[in-house]
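Notebook entry, structure prediction.
Reason for the run: the old model in the group folder had no record of what sequence produced it. Starting over properly, with the input documented here first.
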Amino acid sequence: MLIYDANFKLLGMSERALNLLGYPSFNAFYSNHSDISELFVDKDDFYIYGKRVSFQEYMLKSKKPLLALLKNSKNLEIEIKFEINNLFFSDENNGYVIFLNSPSVKSQNVQDDFIPKSSVKRSNLLSVDNIFKKTYDLELQNIKNIKLNDLEENTLINDEWLKNTSDNLSLNLGKFINNLKNLINKAYEKEEILYEAIVLGDLNESVKNLSEIKKLAYSYNIKPLTKAIYRLENSQIDEISKNFRQYKDVIEKIDKTITKRNHI
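New structure, fully documented this time:
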């Protein structure tokens, strides 16, 4: 996955994209290239109605995915299908997300260097070069300004909520905290692939990645989270970023609450 701003400036890459291109970090890639198109084997320009455009704009205007052959840092040729979608950081900061699908390696004896999409293990570590660190920095700047209309009347997620919910569930507080840690870890692990699925409109993948988290949220009667999940599942394209921020904000509030509790 690649993230661009409204002017097609590259902002970041997912770990999977970096692995395909043979770079250990986004900084390592960006110190050598300003865009992935510099790796295209075919250097021919793209045109729409006689006007030269970037490959991103070509996909937007033609409304078609692009199949391109590129050469990575290991000098291996990879055929990749690119698909572009709008990405809504906020009302002021919109951009684009490009997904890299079905790579095939043209050189021999290198298949083990590339992992099929279905078996990629998503990292839950938001490192500096991770795509979510870069995009969420933009997204989460706006969380404090969002009025959560449906959540205004909810119980605040704090230590009091933690103890009351534990009592209502007749669960030992320590056990309840461990259960919440499990929920939080699952949410962090699935967040990148979940966001991809929602942006692409892949309902089956969205439901699959939310099902376990939703089940746990209902089991533990975490109303702010169940409401956030409901909105996320029913998002229109222009609501995705806002609803995803709300969902992530609830997850992070739970995380901070149990972390603070552990330090008491």
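Summary: Residues 173-200 form the longest helix (28 residues).
The old model has been moved to the deprecated folder.
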